[in-house]
Design a protein that fits this description.
By secondary structure, the chain is α/β, with parallel strands linked by helices. About 45% of the residues lie in helices and about 15% in strands. It starts with 5 loop residues before the first strand and ends in a 6-residue tail after the last helix. The mean pLDDT is about 95. It binds NADP nicotinamide-adenine-dinucleotide phosphate.
């Protein structure tokens, strides 16, 4: 390993975020692990006491995100890699449309990311002052490719997040910001363990983290997997919407 990176991962207490944290910890980097579950973060810290800094915060609460910033600046003046991964998923019953589902999903997947960007982006961009390249990673979903059944809230939050990230990249590219958008397919995590439908080509969170870290290290703009699902979805996306809707209503349905 050439140099030790300061890596901040949101949603590092379980699933993909935890596996990403472990992958980077194995490589010897310093990980600022953010989540609400103090106990789960403490368990990770106990495994890697020299490398893990626990940031207990709810991303939907700007004051909580702002508070943990102090813990970061006590340790470092900059972050090399900011991975916005914290997320939640709730499906919609289109016949009983509920705005409260949108509020809950948006509070993490949308506003949570705004809060993290407001507080952490300056620390990320500060990396340039130390001759390092700031790298922002957003964990989206393959759901961003197509309008999937019952995904009105979840899918829209991911599409909006991707737009935000790309727009930010346009603004800050000339200032040296590097960006990767990650679109996982189904990954076996507590989030998907609640799903009551078939999940084709489901991947373990360890394998997902391996693919994501490889993509980030290669400075890819887009990391999407698994390949068979990506190709199938891209093929459907080429169809006119009149045909898409007929195909899609038959898939990923309870
Ligand atoms: N699993 C999949 O199949 C899949 C597919 C595509 C995309 N993704 C995306 O991958 C990301 C990670 O999902 P996952 O499957 O790994 O889910 P997960 O195991 O449920 O992990 C979600 C992480 O987000 C954190 N989190 C949730 N709400 C939070 C909040 N308000 N404040 C701070 N942290 C919060 C959780 O920690 P606490 O509960 O401790 O706060 C946890 O660490 C999400 O953005 C998800 O949309 C997942």
């Amino acid at each position: 390993m050439s140099k030790i990176l300061n890596i901040l991962i949101t949603g590092a207490s379980s699933g993909i975020g935890l596996s990403l944290a472990r992958e980077y910890l194995k490589q010897g980097h310093k990980v600022f692990a953010l989540a609400r579950s103090a106990e789960k973060l403490a368990a990770l810290h106990a495994e890697y006491p020299e490398q893990v800094i626990k940031l207990v915060a709810d991303v939907s609460q700007l004051d909580q995100v702002n508070r943990v910033k102090n813990q970061i600046v006590e340790q470092t003046a900059y972050i090399d890699l900011l991975i916005l991964n914290a997320g939640t998923c709730e499906y919609i019953d289109a016949n009983h449309f509920s705005s409260s589902v949108f509020s809950r999903v948006d509070s993490v997947n949308w506003r949570g990311n705004h809060h993290c960007l407001e507080i952490f982006l300056p620390l990320l961009m500060a990396a340039k002052d130390y001759s390092r390249t700031p790298h922002l990673v957003g964990v989206s979903s393959l759901a961003a490719i197509l309008p999937l059944p019952r995904s009105e809230s979840y899918g829209a939050s991911k599409v909006a997040f991707e737009y935000l990230l790309k727009s930010l990249q346009v603004d800050l590219y000339s200032q040296g910001l590097r960006m990767t958008i990650v679109r996982p397919g189904f990954v076996d995590t507590p989030l998907t363990q609640a799903n009551d439908f078939d999940m084709p080509f489901i991947t373990s969170s360890e394998k997902a983290a391996e693919i994501i870290v490889k993509g980030i290290t290669a400075h890819k703009h887009l990391v999407q997997f698994p390949a068979p699902l990506v190709y199938a979805m891209k093929l459907i996306a080429l169809l006119p919407f009149a045909l898409q809707k007929r195909v899609l209503q038959k898939v990923v349905r309870a």
